[in-house]
């Protein structure tokens, strides 16, 4: 941020030392750029600290590890570490229904939906947006679900494709009768698909 | 197109009467704008002719009906009127496999793919792009498939969602192992999903 010209009106001006309100966004910005460029595995917290020009201890102070930093850098409105247990827990024979229901619940939230649409849009249009979502899905979703359920990763990507395509059709393109169908109609229709991939 | 200043070099200059190379794009441009604004059903060939400033007979001369004009205005690289019979014909119990195989075949074509990706991108980012794809899917796909197969439209949109999401994951976001899976692996995995929706 370039310094504003002094107007003579300020009584106190901060010096060059950065406060927390400045440091945190600096770290997030550096993280966003490095993750998009090098992928999740190719970036260390130390490298992010260096790019942000801050002490590595500060990165640890503000963020609870690399994945938490990644999720926040993605501006993903929900932490999958909190969401996935709700899907992965419970009877395995109902995982398809459960996943579709939880997923649609998140998308129907009026504050979440615009942010989720923004993520899909950005992935569809910019290579950086695609890289971020690719990293996010690979790291926070595909790997974790594969470990928990012991199903092939290809199955998980097919399930993720069904869910992403569903919200594209319902919320981005807006095709009837999907727009006006109830969540439970969609759960009944698409749940068995996800069950087949993940059950 | 603004007239170029005369340089004195031309021996023949066309008058104000438009030749076919000028009329056709004018009609397409008007069609694109009207379809995006009012949807397929809300636009007549006569209204397109009026917006383009040409005689309605010329629209009929250049385009084989409203749907053909729509498909061309969409710049969709394949006419679904040609593609759908390959999917809808043949044994009903294999329609899922057949759809996935034909669809992936089109996407794997090196000249088609960038144009298809462009359509998905434009639908994800601009309201006009979304409106065009929405109209296209509703008119050229959902309605036609519903008539041919007598399955509920909601099933068709779920199938379309699976296929759009699959290509988003494979070609736009680029998630492994979907990127490097063979077409036949994907047919075996996703074919039964489509079969369940459309069979």
UniProtKB/TrEMBL annotation, chains A, B:
This is TetR family transcriptional regulator. PROSITE patterns: HTH_TETR_2. Gene3D superfamilies: Homeodomain-like (1.10.10.60), Tetracycline Repressor, domain 2 (1.10.357.10). Residues 44-63 bind DNA. InterPro entries: Homeodomain-like_sf (IPR009057), HTH-type_TetR-like_transc_reg (IPR050109), HTH_TetR (IPR001647), Tet_transcr_reg_TetR-rel_C_sf (IPR036271), TetR_C_16 (IPR041678). Residues 1-23 are annotated as: Disordered. It comes from Actinocorallia longicatena. Residues 21-81 form the HTH tetR-type domain. The keyword DNA-binding applies. It comes from the Bacteria. Keywords: DNA-binding.
């Amino acid at each position: 941020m370039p310094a504003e010209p002094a107007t003579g009106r300020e009584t106190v001006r901060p010096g060059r030392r950065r406060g927390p309100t400045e440091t945190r966004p600096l770290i997030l910005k550096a993280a966003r750029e490095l993750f998009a460029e090098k992928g999740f595995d190719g970036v260390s917290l130390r490298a992010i600290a260096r790019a942000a020009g801050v002490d590595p201890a500060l990165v640890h102070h503000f963020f609870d590890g690399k994945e938490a930093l990644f999720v926040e850098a993605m501006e993903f409105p929900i932490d999958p570490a909190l969401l996935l247990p709700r899907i992965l827990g419970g009877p395995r024979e109902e995982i398809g229904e459960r996943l579709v229901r939880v997923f649609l619940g998140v998308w129907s939230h009026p504050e979440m939906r615009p942010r989720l649409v923004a993520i899909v849009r950005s992935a569809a249009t910019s290579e950086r947006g695609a890289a971020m979502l690719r990293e996010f899905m690979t790291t926070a979703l595909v790997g974790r679900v594969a470990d928990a359920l012991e199903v092939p990763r290809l199955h998980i990507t097919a399930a993720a494709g069904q869910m992403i395509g569903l919200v594209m059709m319902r919320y981005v393109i807006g095709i009837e009768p999907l727009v006006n169908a109830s969540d439970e109609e969609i759960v009944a229709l698409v749940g068995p698909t996800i069950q087949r991939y993940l059950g």
